[in-house]
Design a protein that fits this description.
Elements lengths: L18 E2 L10 E6 L11 H10 L3 E4 L8 H6 L5 E5 L6 H8 L5 E5 L39 H4 L9 E7 L37 E3 L16 H11 L23 E10 L11 E3 L3 H10 L4 E4 L3 E2 L5 H13 L16 E5 L9 E2 L6 E7 L17 E4 L15 E4 L13 E4 L2 H21 L6 H10 L23 H10 L9 E7 L4 E6 L11 E7 L15 E7 L7 E6 L7 E9 L9 E6 L16 E3 L6 E5 L8 E7 L5 E8 L5 E4 L6 E9 L2 E9 L1
Parallel strand pairs: 1-5, 6-8, 6-10, 7-8, 10-12, 12-14, 14-15
Antiparallel strand pairs: 2-4, 2-5, 3-4, 8-9, 11-13, 16-17, 18-19, 19-22, 20-21, 20-23, 23-24, 25-26, 26-29, 27-28, 27-30, 30-31
Helix pairs in contact: 5-8, 6-7, 8-9, 8-10
Length: 707
């Protein structure tokens, strides 16, 4: 007699469902993070199992959590990193409801929220959370996470060295302020109050610096008169850190007396005698900033912050003489022997607050760093000047109440303790402008120089400036096209500046990986895996070259006639696939190519050279052997035509056109057919554009030129 039973070994095991985590801490609104079971082999944004989850959740956006990893793909898959996917549902939908909807789905191993990551400072300054401009977690009104100067990572390397002296050419610094006093420069060879020039430097009783004067505004004196503007700039640079009081400075130390850079008060702005009701806020120039440069150089300063400007078509000869003296002689004694942490001086200046593309001095002088200012949402302030003379952009706050409710979007720093102009508590206030952006750059410069001192790395003015500029990240993609080329190298990044310094001179960039080509009659599609820079970050762009002769030995900076260069901006992770289509080629012709990866510093990889031949012309002219879309004519004047490959016929095709800084200038949606689709682009300005075509979740990028 046969009996029927189920073999225990043959019973299908239900996949184990480890965790459905409901976070009690803060989590990203609207997002659900899912790990699929190991048995699910195909986990892509558009794979069936992923689409099922997206449909259940009503998700409008899906993204992989971990990149494929290029050559590390197999190892990553071994650890199950390829099984993680994020789903965006809705900001107002409770996480518990989304998790509940997935709890019985057998394909899911884990479902949870995404914790909000907040970087914590080691310092105990109670107002540090107000300083979004150092580290922006997006919690301040109207701010966007990441729109900052990235100071916290730099503090892991150094918090400032006392050998670095920063001169603040401005109103007087409040040297008695509890958040400034310990970091004031003190003239070691001057006896206060004896009305003598004890150190023979040409200035009497200059203890914390010097105050210049002129007829109508007062006599010159070693007595510093505290004012709001100068104290605010000084606080950004080096307010005392970790003292349990107020806020933090960029290079303000860690609370120990032998840390933190020193602040020299070069008071070239004094209280306006015609407005005596507010001697801390109303200022008048002494017109003696030129001599202040020389004073700063002679007395040990190696960085000068100039949060002031004047209009003009040229730099005055006296200003040039003063700045040149500082740049050439700072850090040395009267005999030219190096006595400071660096031979020579770095000058940082404010680009001005007219909201125009105009020149302001001294910032626009080539030996100065000119600084524009951004807000807490990646946008350049409408008040900031811009133009080809700007070198760097830095946080400077917001002036409009729409961007900065309660002034919280401004830069938070110290002011004179006896001033009534505080907007939080006595001695502290929000201010905005390029005057606040410049000390961010000066403070970061002081941090980098401090790290060089502490790690015995030789430093020059040229090298320091180069590190600051190379640290900048692309802010153009967030801003209006009118700023193109007018914000310098981008927004300064203290953390990355430290990486550049400590990495040394040799920081090679990987070549584009796994290059593949697909040739049609009139086009060649080139794809590659996105490489990494020296630090493991994705490169920012790839320079793609084409010609009818070999590109080996060609000077890419001075491209000969007959060769063409296209720049492919990268928005993908390391190991993901990027590509470009070269169109308007001739059938049956051999073409030579080169790819060069470029990192955020502007450093380039070694070229990858290769050769491909287009397909021979079709016997039947109605046949389209192209494997890709075709855009013609290229260059074009008013209309651009899109021809579809057979694979795109009867399918919905989305078209986006981006300008040179990545802003979308045209969108279209069409059903692919046998006839070319015409796009009227008469409204576009002449220039280079990237056309992104989406066909069933697959994107292809093409470069076109409008004449």
């Amino acid at each position: 007699m046969l009996s029927c039973h189920k073999d225990p070994e043959a019973v299908k095991q239900q996949p184990e469902k480890d965790v459905f985590v409901i976070l009690e801490n803060d989590y990203e609104k609207g997002w659900v993070r899912v790990k699929f079971q190991n048995e699910i082999q195909d986990v892509r944004e558009n794979s069936p199992e992923v689409l099922v989850v997206a449909d259940i959740l009503g998700a409008t956006h899906v993204r992989k959590v971990f990149a494929e990893g290029g050559k590390f793909k197999e190892r990553r898959e071994k650890y199950g990193l390829h099984l993680w996917v994020d789903f965006y549902v809705d900001d107002d939908l409770p996480l518990t409801r989304s998790l509940d909807a997935l709890k019985d789905l057998p394909s899911i191993h884990i479902a949870e929220g995404i914790p909000i990551e907040r970087q914590q400072s080691v310092f105990n300054d109670p107002h540090l959370p107000r300083q979004w401009h150092y580290y922006n977690d997006g919690s301040t009104a109207s701010s966007v996470a990441g729109a900052d100067a990235n100071i916290f990572p730099a503090w892991k390397i150094t918090t400032g060295d006392p050998s670095v002296v920063v001169a603040v050419l401005d109103g007087g610094i409040d040297f008695t302020h509890p958040d400034l006093e310990a970091n004031m420069w003190i003239n070691p060879n001057e006896i206060p109050g004896n009305e003598e020039d004890d150190d023979d430097n040409g200035y009497v009783d200059d203890i914390y610096g010097y105050r210049w004067g002129k007829d109508g505004v007062g006599e010159p004196s070693g007595e510093i008169l505290p004012m709001d503007h100068g104290s605010h700039c000084a606080g950004v640079i080096a307010a005392v850190n970790n003292n349990g009081t107020g806020l933090a400075g960029i290079a303000g130390g860690d609370g120990n007396p032998n840390t933190g850079v020193r602040l020299m008060s070069c008071q070239t702005f004094v209280p306006d005698p015609t407005k005596p009701e507010d001697p801390f806020g109303n200022s008048k120039s002494t017109s003696q900033s030129v001599d202040a440069f020389a004073y700063a150089a002679d007395n040990g300063a190696v960085i000068a912050n100039c949060s002031f400007s004047y209009s003009g078509t040229t730099l005055s000869s006296a200003y040039k003489a003063g700045i040149d003296y500082f740049v050439d002689n700072a850090g040395t004694d009267e005999k030219g022997n190096q006595t400071g942490p660096m031979r020579g001086g770095l000058v940082v200046g404010a680009a001005g607050n007219d909201g125009e593309e105009i020149t302001k001095y001294p910032a626009s002088y080539e030996r100065c760093i000119s600084v524009a200012y951004s807000m807490s949402n990646y946008l350049v302030s409408p008040s900031s000047n811009y133009g080809h003379r700007v070198d760097i952009t830095a946080p400077g706050g917001a002036t409009s109440s729409s961007y900065a409710p309660g002034r919280a979007g401004g830069v938070y720093s110290t002011i004179a303790m006896r001033s009534a102009n505080y907007n939080v508590e006595k001695g502290y206030a929000y201010k905005s402008g390029t005057s606040m952006a410049a000390p961010h750059v000066a403070g970061i410069a002081a941090l980098v120089l401090s790290a060089a001192v502490e790690h015995n790395i030789p430093m020059t003015v040229e090298k320091l400036r180069d590190i600051l500029e190379r640290s900048c990240w692309d802010i153009y993609k967030y801003n209006d096209s009118k700023y193109e080329g007018g914000l310098g190298r981008g927004q300064i990044d203290a953390g990355f500046a430290m990486q550049i310094l400590l990495a040394g001179e040799d920081q090679p960039v990987e070549q584009p990986q796994h290059v593949q080509t697909t040739a049609g009659e009139y086009d060649v599609r080139v794809t590659w895996e996105v490489p990494a820079d020296f630090f493991g970050n994705a490169i920012v762009s790839t320079d793609a070259y084409i010609g009818l002769k070999t590109l080996e030995g060609v000077d890419f900076d001075h491209l000969p006639v007959g060769f063409k260069k296209m720049v492919v901006k990268n928005d993908k992770e390391v190991g993901q696939t990027d590509g470009i289509v070269f169109s308007d080629l001739s059938p049956g012709t051999s073409y030579y190519f080169a790819l060069v990866a470029v990192d955020r510093q502007g450093l380039q990889s070694e070229p990858v050279f290769f050769k491909t031949k287009t397909q021979d012309a079709a016997t039947n002219p109605d046949d389209n052997n192209s494997q890709v879309f075709q855009l013609h004519p290229n260059p074009f004047k008013e209309s651009l035509f899109l021809t579809f490959p057979k694979s795109a016929r009867e399918k919905k095709i989305a078209v986006r056109i981006l300008n040179a800084i990545g802003n979308r200038v045209y969108t279209d949606e069409v059903i692919g057919g046998t006839e070319p689709h015409q796009m009227n682009l008469k409204h576009l300005a002449a220039g280079v554009y990237t056309v992104i075509i989406t066909n069933q979740e697959e994107e292809e990028a093409y470069v076109v030129i409008k004449h």
